[in-house]
Amino acid sequence: MIVAGVAFVIVSLIPETYAPAILRKRAARKRQETGDDRWWSRYDEKAEFLPLLKVNLSRPFVMTVTEPICIFWDVYIAIVYGILYLCFVAYPIIFSDIRGWSPGITGLAYCGIGIGCLIIIVSEPLIRRMIDSHAPDPETGKPPPEAMVSILCIASVIMPIGQIWFSWTCTPNYHWIVPILAGIPFGAGNAGIFIYASNYLVHSYGIYAASALAGNAVLRSMLGATLPLAGPSMYAKLGPHWAGTLCGLLEVACIPIPFIFYKYGHRIRMKSGLIRRMQEDKMRLERKKRKAQERLEHAAENRAEADAETGAGMETGAAIGEEVDLEKAVRRESR
């Protein structure tokens, strides 16, 4: 409870970073300060509440079944998530029922998975350097979203290795440390997939990232809630070796997904009507910004030329005035 309370306070102090929300608040503040309704944001809500609510609630599910990126990644992450939760059923069966450990000691068996997750988190600077080493996207000047998938290719391979390793070393004829060590690549693969697959969805869908992540969360939560229910029966009928191997083979079957997206992800993104519309909208906004900047620069040049002409006129007037004063002085001396 204490940790949750501290986390809630920290999250509450984080400033808003969502561009549409920032622009809406900025426009509303300008309207309030100036009393001028002409201040507006392109993200201002113009629709009524109920139609808007309907669109926002339906968009995650529509994207899940119509967007190729969401279809493949939602299914993949859901499978990974379900197998991870299945481990919460498998570990007590392996270590408590088969090895005879107490529940408290069985809980320590999860240390391997935890260490694997920590390795990915601690390695973030190195992983980020690997992502940034990719050639930048000509349109954005930043690494393309497929740079994230390079990490997923590695994670998709090491995760089933850890799963199958655990499956065939979990019985008492192997030392207890061997299956626990198998949790390290398994946990690292899980953490890498959850973190960087989410990043890929965010970088691919931009302002629609929340809808993409929402659809992903719904599907993975459904599988994470239902797959563990089959754990006891599956381990009882197939045994610890083949039950775990079945999960590992399912993860192996999903390995082509990140490799395909790493190579052809750009083409797949360009076939998405939603992403194309989002990019076209972004390009229109950039063109408006460039035109506005050009108008400002042109106005600044005109002001500079006008100031220069005014300054030249003043210098000419001063010179003429000096000549007149000189002629008057010469006339006085001649008299």
Give me the CATH architecture of one domain, please. Answer: Up-down Bundle
- For the termini, the CA-CA separation is 106 Å
**Poorly predicted segments:** 329-335
Predict the CATH topology of one domain: Growth Hormone, Chain: A
Tally of contiguous helical segments:
13
Mean pLDDT: 86
Order of helices and strands: HHHHHHHHHHHHH
Q: What is the CATH H-level superfamily of one domain? A: MFS general substrate transporter like domains
Most strands sheet: none
Oligomeric composition of the shown chains? single chain
CATH top-level class of one domain: Mainly Alpha
Structural classification: mainly alpha
Number of separate strands: 0
Anisotropy-based shape: elongated
Rounded to an integer in angstroms, the radius of gyration calculated over CA atoms is 32 Å
What's the helical proportion of residues? over 70%
What amount of the residues lies in strands?
under 5%
Give short descriptive properties of this protein:
elongated, Growth Hormone, Chain: A, single chain, 81% helix, 335 residues, disordered C terminus, mainly alpha
Descriptive report:
- With 335 residues, the chain is an all-alpha fold.
- It has a domain at 69-283: MFS general substrate transporter like domains (Growth Hormone, Chain: A), CATH 1.20.1250.
- The chain has helices at residues 2-13, 19-34, 49-66, 68-98, 103-107, 111-122, 124-132, 146-167, 177-205, 209-226, 231-253, 256-270, 273-334.
- The longest helix has 62 residues, at 273-334.
